[in-house]
Amino acid sequence: MTLAQALFAPRAVALVGASGDAAKNSARPLRFLKKHGYAGRIVPINASRSKVLGEPAFGSLAEAPGAIDHAFIMTPGDWVERAIDECGARGVPVATIFSDGFADAGPEGAARELGVRVLGPNSMGLIDVPGRVALTVNAVLEMDALPAGTTSFVSHSGTMLGTVLSRGAARGLGFAKLVSVGNESDIGTGELVELLAEDPGTKVILLFLETVRDDARLAAAARKAHAAGKPVVAYKLGRSRLGAALARSHTGALAGEDAALDAYFRDCGIVRVDMLETLIEIAPLLSGRTPPNLPRAARVAVVTTTGGGAASVVDRLGMFGIETVAPDSESPIIDLTMTATAERYTAALDDLLASPQCDGVLAVVGSSAQFHPQLAVDPIVRSKRNAKPLAVFLTPHAERSLALLAERGVAAFRTPEACADALAAYFAWRSPRTRAAAASAEWPPDLPRRGRLDERQALKLLASLGISVVAHAIAQPPGYAHAIPYPVAAKALSADILHKTEAGAVCLGIADRAELDRGIRAMLERVPASRAVLVQKMESGLAEAIVGYRDDPVVGPIALVGAGGTLAEIYKDYALRLAPVSEDEAEEMIAEVKGLATLRGYRALPRGDVRALAKAVAALSRLALIAGSPVAEAEINPLIVKREGVVAVDGLVAMKEQD
Amino acid sequence: MTLAQALFAPRAVALVGASGDAAKNSARPLRFLKKHGYAGRIVPINASRSKVLGEPAFGSLAEAPGAIDHAFIMTPGDWVERAIDECGARGVPVATIFSDGFADAGPEGAARELGVRVLGPNSMGLIDVPGRVALTVNAVLEMDALPAGTTSFVSHSGTMLGTVLSRGAARGLGFAKLVSVGNESDIGTGELVELLAEDPGTKVILLFLETVRDDARLAAAARKAHAAGKPVVAYKLGRSRLGAALARSHTGALAGEDAALDAYFRDCGIVRVDMLETLIEIAPLLSGRTPPNLPRAARVAVVTTTGGGAASVVDRLGMFGIETVAPDSESPIIDLTMTATAERYTAALDDLLASPQCDGVLAVVGSSAQFHPQLAVDPIVRSKRNAKPLAVFLTPHAERSLALLAERGVAAFRTPEACADALAAYFAWRSPRTRAAAASAEWPPDLPRRGRLDERQALKLLASLGISVVAHAIAQPPGYAHAIPYPVAAKALSADILHKTEAGAVCLGIADRAELDRGIRAMLERVPASRAVLVQKMESGLAEAIVGYRDDPVVGPIALVGAGGTLAEIYKDYALRLAPVSEDEAEEMIAEVKGLATLRGYRALPRGDVRALAKAVAALSRLALIAGSPVAEAEINPLIVKREGVVAVDGLVAMKEQD
């Protein structure tokens, strides 16, 4: 018996702690299994009743007869461990734990030793719609008919099982398997995506995520799903959370959990949606399709029977940078408001679906959608709808038309915002990134692997990665002699000062020896611990950039490039990718940074050396290739970008291990 | 008979061009009037039939018997004018024109002379739900029962009448009057809002806008509605449209139609929503309430039976800058997932609704909402729900619960995004701005009123408004003598060069006489037309700001302040208000500009003179007070902000009348 069989197709299910009071949560799984036609044996386990809701019950798992493939545990927290022991004793391969409240350590250690795989704790259970397994406490299962389909769903929130099922049902969208993973003490999102990638009944995989607990396994599973032609879509909470409070660099502060996860999803080919209903409605748009990997802004053609209704979607597409085009027409929208006939609508739609001038088609239907589907809904169904991605928005409340479209596999949306969100998510969809095998990098043997590097050490590390660094020298007391030509900058040499400028530990634009001496004296008064001083050449260029690297606790190494100075922080103007990145990928990142537009030729300003900047971004990201890399965060801020070449004038490097 | 009576309560309606073929659009008004119980006389006008759908028909308006209060005209465009003539001849006070395609000039001139008020052309008609007047071609009226309520709706899109009616009906939200204004040749949105402000059946007014055609009338009407305690809410298309192509300044390019309209809505107390369904769902949240006029970030308390469901709203609230607070609790959300009973839910909700620590309450209900409303939906209905704004989000498809809440006047939302959008719109809601009577300003008599001002004239205008301008002088050939102390800047004196820096018409940081002479020679080679040169003192400060003024074609004079240099443009980092603004209002604007955060004490950087910047913004905005002001656009870019004071170093002023 495979894990998938025990989870989704158990021949017998034990309901541990099943209540005989039909009003209680713990009575629901028995009711729901029966209501929705479970064909296997149901074995209620109840310490004080011999019958539960009409079924013979047993005092403990040990007493229950026959083989049991799956135990659903609802007992109070203290009793969970005993139930797991019993599962182990009689060879129950999978236990789903609804309970919470047991010891912090959780039951998974004991369960693993006993050979019992665990879903949960805090799992609301799972549902296999075509298989008629409704093993869940979710109250939405009171509904009469579960809509079957080929979309599967894995969720951190158990409530969302009911949310997607009931909302799907109201518009004719069906599901295959739905799983509430709870706290993922054992079976996690990644493993479930692996199982669904192998599941012949699943064509699209939807995820409702509160976090990512095993980034490597989920990434591998997403790649496996991609290889199997199954799109993976994520709705992820936590977008408004601020960056990690402990961040030691700008990179750390900027690359907060959510931005890093965005880079992660992109890296492993997961489509990310912004709105909750998009997650439900997007499946038909993606099903059977592969990532468009568009190298430019997407172009959408529009046909409509309502100007205002079409504009409500087009407006939003514009906010996503998606262009509206109309092949062979002057207006950007083909508006059939006053002239719609079924024949005209089909003809217009088929023209657009065949046109090489657009990447997708939006069809909008106005008031007729509710009571006169023959006018525009039927023509959509009859169109050559698989030739190109087709999204439909119906302006009125029109559940029957939504269901009609869903039945034919046409992606139909209830709101203009979800419609635009889905199209934008589709066009942003990329294949999982494949990396050329890169040579590993080396940690310079004379640099420490703990604490923080000082200025000179940081510049040395950057140079070792092949990044051009500013000419510099250490000037020692008492004479502070150095050979750097004026004008120069002087910095207190210390790994302990995080924000040197604010601490008065930096003097810029020093014109001559006398000014340097005055500057050093003043600086040493403010930063008494420092004695030696770093003297470096004053550099200027066309723009300043911030280039960063971070070993993110959730998704691993990431690379960052942003506008220099305080711009990246104030305007959140930066681009992120999982590290390492190639120079081409770095150029793509640079193109996403608005504040670096000046480098690409803004108005009549001279162009900067974008390629050299890209090389520096790629070089710093190679920190990810150092075996057992000690670096937590590394940052060049600023990297001066010139007409030719770049130069790093300030480096900050913090290790994972602190003293 | 008042206009409102003729529009919404006609004793007899003539349907001009009513078709006898029930399948045609032009047969619908007759069917819909009868279907929905119209109590007045229906008079079909049809040139070729004596009966239309069972009703006696007449060959022309002239032949129809009895008084007719309202004519609904569906004849082909060429025939519209004749129908209007006939309306005039027999004293029909209002004609709604569905037709389009008549002469460009439109029928409104003739209609006005004849004393006929016109709704349309291109109007889909209007509906008075409680009054049982369904005078429209909108196909959604095929629905059996129209939900009556106290929310009225004015729309540029006729389709949207059906959209809001049918979507409202599906969740128990009713309507009073719904009007499709079409092209507003005569009766416009402003006049209709006036009528609705006086309408005892209307408590909330919703607008679906494609543009604003009469800003002054709509603003006055919105103020009238505010005075009557009736919130006005707008959904406005065109958010992604770029600024006017003909803009001559940054201010013009930035303050595109949509941003200017945002300032306009705020000015006249109109609530703006971002999403289409928010427009439908927000009414109960606003009904009977006044603007909160919050001087700080809003605080919302949350009670839920689903962690994931609550997070989907809270996440979005965070993106709007709304804080989640939990009085007397460590967690920011009161999560009753495992412990919900009706009593606990009501108690938790009432505590929050009574707490002075939050400005509003969000209640989220999970899977129980669909089949067990007694668990959380009933408790919401029983709570002290009017004590504070209360928004409810239900995670499953739960139309009956939505209807139950709507029936009791509780604002309930189908999606987390619309729920957050509505709360954000409510908290951003402000009373219409009242302006202290300000002294008018004067146009300096020696400045031209056409074309553009040159640099010196622009500085003179700024100084006349009380703005501190850079020390400057005109240096004339051949000697170019001047008395400005070095270092100086030199600029070619010309009103014709728009982007002086790019044109090579500016020399900065000139250290001495010799350098000035070289600079002037080089400049005159690049800009041969210019002879005299403006010499001005080099200024520096803590930050640069852009301060702008524009007489917007849609909403009139507006004031702008933004981050200097190219930041305002690259990052769309600016604040707009209708002009004139007071100094306090200008300070509020400055606080909205991220790039000016440095002035308010960013990290350890010194603070700038925000008050002096505010004075300059207010001073420039007084251009709006000049009687018959000739200025189309005026801009200071940059205004240098110092620790004390500000100084304008560059001015651009373009008149409405060009040569």
Walkthrough of the structure:
- Two copies of one chain form a homodimer.
- With 659 residues, chain A is of the alpha/beta class.
- Chain A is 31% helix and 21% strand.
- In chain A, the strands form six sheets. A seven-stranded mixed beta sheet of chain A has the order 9-8-11-10-12-13-14, sandwiched between helices.
- In chain A, β12 (204-209), α7 (215-227) and β13 (232-236) form a beta-alpha-beta unit.
- In chain A, α12 (307-319) crosses α17.
- Chain A is flat and about 95 Å long.
- Residues 242-247 of chain A have low confidence and may be disordered.
- At the A-B interface, α5, α12, α14 and α20 of A face α5, α12, α14 and α20 of B.
**Helix vs. strand class of chain A:** alpha/beta
Which two chains form the greatest contact, residue counts included?
A-B, 70 and 72 residues
How many beta strands in the DSSP annotation of chain A? 30
The helix tally of chain A amounts to 22
As residue ranges, the low-confidence spans of chain A are 242-247
Question: Radius of gyration of chain A over alpha carbons?
Answer: 30 Å
Q: From the structure provided, what is the oligomeric state, counting identical versus distinct chains?
A: homodimer
What percentage of residues of chain A falls in helices of 4 or more residues? 25-40%
Largest sheet of chain A: 7 strands, mixed
Note the overall shape of chain A.
flat
Q: What is the residue-mean pLDDT of chain A, rounded to a whole number?
A: 91
Order the strands across the largest sheet of chain A as they lie in space.
Answer: 9-8-11-10-12-13-14
Strand content of chain A: 15-25%
The rounded distance between the terminal residues' Cα atoms of chain A is: 51 Å
